[in-house]
Amino acid sequence: MDKASLETLILELHDIEAVKFGSFTLKSGIVSPIYIDLRLIVSYPSLLIRISDLLSQLAAPLSFSLVRNFLDANRSVAVPKPAAEVAVKASARVRVPYGERAKVSKNPAGKRLFEVMEAKQTNLCVAADVATAKELLEIADKVGPEICLLKTHVDILSDFTPEFGSQLRQIADKHNFLIFEDRKFADIGNTVTMQYEGGIFRILDWADITNAHIISGPGIVDGLKLKGLSKGRGLLLLAEMSSKGNLAQGDYTEAAVKIAEQHSDFVIGFISVNPASWKWGPSDPSFIHATPGVQMVSGGDSLGQQYNTPYSVINDRGSDIIIVGRGIIKASNPAETAREYRVQGWEAYKASCS
């Protein structure tokens, strides 16, 4: 590991308060001005992986007996279950089942989403991008039995009324799915607080989950969290996008992960495209990855949207939820088509667990 990477690692340890400054009496009796508590990294698998890699590099020149003695001396350090089991699987880059991840989720909306996915055997989210509330409610009722999540764009509904939220909630409760308002908040904290809670749409009242860009910095999460956390709501951060030429990649994606880890009681995961390719490894297993631009056949449209198949998104790209829009809502039989997508998505998930 080069000097720059090592410095970044140290700063990240400090961010999660694993590096502490003060006066500490160590087990040896020595008083130290610094204390490093690596027990905390069990909740940050991406850090766990990098530290493990670094330790393996450092241990390479040592004799086997020295390494064995070190492991024996530290074997008694306790890590609470089920967090330990989940973190070990995550650090080994093994797919952790949804049910196990529900147990370590720090947010009620995230926990419930994992539980719904497991109970209904579905990782399908339908993007109900239609022009009227009447159409949206009809589609929600048709595809409800097949989905874990319904994605809405409330600001494109020409016939929106204040009753829309309660009407959609009734359908969601009937079919046991969560509501995701794809608002893509992007302003400063104070502004998004008002946009989330107020206005004509009152998103906070009826949407279990919403999402945000991080272009304005972590303050946007603070603002949404101020209103949403107490109501059990969850937030997805846009770490990647599926449109051609988008700028959400590289350092931007990594910054989204860091912000999420700092707010894991409210941020439940990411809108992502290919989390398996992230150079810093998988994020906290309690985080959900939802990927848009899914159709039965790979390709794209005239406006730059890029499509991938359910198997590719779940099995190859390491995502958790497939987001399907036009492939279902434009179908002659949306309910039957949603069932086909649900089966394909779930089969891909089962294959990735084996």
TrEMBL record:
Q: Does the keyword DNA-binding apply?
A: no
Keyword field: Decarboxylase, Lyase, Pyrimidine biosynthesis
EC number(s) on file: 4.1.1.23
What terms describe the molecular function in GO for this protein?
Answer: orotate phosphoribosyltransferase activity; orotidine-5'-phosphate decarboxylase activity
The catalytic activity, as recorded, is:
orotidine 5'-phosphate + H(+) = UMP + CO2
Catalytic residues at 182, 184, 187
- Tell me which residues make up the Orotidine 5'-phosphate decarboxylase domain: 123-341
SMART domains recorded for this chain?
A: OMPdecase (SM00934)
User: Which one GO biological process term can you cite for this protein?
Assistant: 'de novo' pyrimidine nucleobase biosynthetic process
- Does the record carry Lyase as a key word? yes
One of its Pfam families is OMPdecase
* Entry similarity comment: Belongs to the OMP decarboxylase family.
Q: What is this protein called?
A: Orotidine 5'-phosphate decarboxylase
Instruction: Output the lineage of the source organism.
Output: Eukaryota, Viridiplantae, Streptophyta, Embryophyta, Tracheophyta
